[in-house]
Amino acid sequence: MANRLKTALLNPQFYRAMTGIVLFLVLWQLLTGVLDLPRFKLLPNPISVIKEWFSFEPLSGRSLFTQEYYLDIAYSVVRVLIAFSLATVLGVGLGLIMGWNRIFYEFTFPIVEILRPMPPLSWIPLAVLVLPGVEVAVVYVTFIAGFFATVLNTLLGVYSIDKKYFLAARCLGSKPRHIFRNVVVPGALPFIFTGLQISMGVSWMSLVAGEIISGQRGLGYAIYEGYSMFQYNQVVCYMFTLGILGFISSAGIRAVGRKLMAWEASRRGA
Amino acid sequence: MAKGKTPQGAISIKNVTKIYDPEGVHVVAMQDCSFDIAAREFAIIVGPSGCGKTTLLNAIAGFDGITSGEIFLDGELISSHQKQIKPNVDRMVVFQSGALFPWKTVMENVIYGPIVQGTMKKTEALARGRQMLNQVGLAGIEDKYPEELSSGIQRRVEILRALINEPRVVMLDEPFRGLDAVAKTVMHEFLVGVYCTSPRTMFFITHDLDEAIFLGDKVVIMTTRPARVKKIVTVDMPWPREHHIKTSKLYLDLKGEVLEAVHEEAKKAFQAGERELA
User: Fold this and answer.
1) B-chain residue closest to A270, CA distance
2) Which ipTM did the prediction report?
3) Whole-angstrom Cα distance, residue B185 to residue B187?
4) Which residue among A149, A228, B20, B197 is least packed, with the fewest CB closer than 10 Å?
């Protein structure tokens, strides 16, 4: 660990990344705080955002040192986790079966292809109408976004598998269930994980939109609330909070993927 | 797998014709092709590219059917216009571009067959796999993934994955294509080694005539499409084959004979190709 930190600190990459961030903040400060440009005046400047974020007594009542802040995060994270898990289990399952069984594919593919492009937010009215409670509706809208991305990528994953592996498996005496377990699932895994990355991204997107429109609590809701209460610092704080959470969840999926696909390491040249 | 009784592996190909008809355009891949491979014989199949060698392999393996004719394995009909037996471990295929499962380690690949068929317990299979790897000097790579290894080693592992099932027939479709000349000689020694340790019927497709004569008991030269047998050259040289035979007079004579027949067909294929383009 200490060693890794040391190499990271010696690496020019690290300093370039830091410089990039600093330049971004300077530019932001220039545009909003120093130059006094017409439309930019309304934007909070980075110093006030950071002050608010780290404040013990924030004006908005939300900062790193308040319980409110973590409650908002917890609401959103739990919603995303439930929706993403459901989307993964059902999406990977459906995708694998569609890829595995030609007849099932022919029954399901057209309908999947029509439902898939529907923007998740267009589901909100029906979701609120039919599902018990707004909470379930928000989770549903988050789920539906990730679900179709996962189905499609899993399906493509199965189709990406070279035919020779199926022939080799049959030659070696596999029954269909062996082929499913030893060829279809591992062969589709790289595409599945690409799908999960996309799924996680669109889940956060739909969640925040869902929370803004019909939610109670959560980061999206707090962003909208900050807007209506003129707490623009809070809006920006929460936007960055979402950025960080999105980054962490992507990194998490990548880490799990690397673990499950150790065999891909040599392909990546690691 | 036939336990107790010794597997033989004699193949008899009788008047086999295969017509592909994908979009209403008849493509005759094989026409009236007949020849026999004796049990435990090392047969080499050569012929112009795209002449239908792989079509024949697919038919014997059970990957694909034939339009007419019959194929027998040890007297049992395995393929005709109405019968196509399923792929099975008694006829193992080693593929052109290598088909080790990239997501399984070397050892998981080698023991895959016995494990899914349930013919060996895991510990038994592991012991057998380790023994086979040791025997050919590949100890220590058990836990590596195929793509961490050179393609030469990958090919050897794939051949072991086939052999662990003790098939009656091993079919290899240009298994050493793309390897350099030095790597090929290592492969040939390896194959001579495993063949002499436990001889079984080999059906080996190649374009490399040196390989053909060095490894073959007989070389079956196919015509340009539609494939049938043009000539069979018997290579009457003792096993185990050693590299010095490549300079012997007999070897060079045989090579000349095969080369001439192959060249004739290659020219025909080339002209046919030009006609198709014109």
Assistant:
1) B148
2) 0.88
3) 5
4) A228
